[in-house]
Amino acid sequence: MITLYTLGSLSPNIRKVTIMLAETALPYTVHVLEKHSGHTTAAEFSRINPNATVPAIADPDTGSTLFESGAILYYLAEKSGQLLPTELPRRAEVMKWLVFESANMGPVMGELFHYMLDDVELATQHLQRYKNKIAQFCSILDQQLAAREYLGHDYSIADIALYPWTAILGDMADVDLDNFKNLKRWSTAIAKRPAVHLATGPS
Predict the structure, then answer these.
(1) Which one of 33, 90, 118, 151 is CB 3.0 to 4.6 Å from 85, fit for a cystine?
(2) Interval 187-197: pLDDT, tens
(3) Partners of 2 in the beta sheet?
(4) Superfamily of chain region 2-80
């Protein structure tokens, strides 16, 4: 059975994995790490993730350990045979949006998340730069969703990777989804999926 390592909170990165596990119905247990763990616990976890961040998973079925949410989503898709197309063109379409999240939306939202939640003082122009970048990403996503229901041809790990950030756009980045009608329609539809409710509760 898969073990999911968390800090006991539903950060967007952890939400991606819990949604994926719910969508695929893969059995798993949760191991909550202490934020300020002792040396032994930290040393044990470093064998799972040398970067000491969550989420991370361990799968005794294959002997695999993974960290970084995008890599975890890819692994779970391969293991379950779900939410990742097998045909190369459609698979490539999903992968480019998965990497878009990993390289763009995730890091920028993560940095903003850090400054806002930890109440770290940041110059107004730097804070606004983060918010402008996020609005730019939302515009790109909105354009992609103008003529399709999901980021790829069907619901996939790309949608799961990007969805949790949309739930906090208003609070964290001053982004009004009403200005991105396609992105709002997409986010609302995903929020209604039974697995999303099962994994995270109502959004």
Answers:
(1) 90
(2) 999 999 999 99
(3) 28
(4) Glutaredoxin (3.40.30.10)
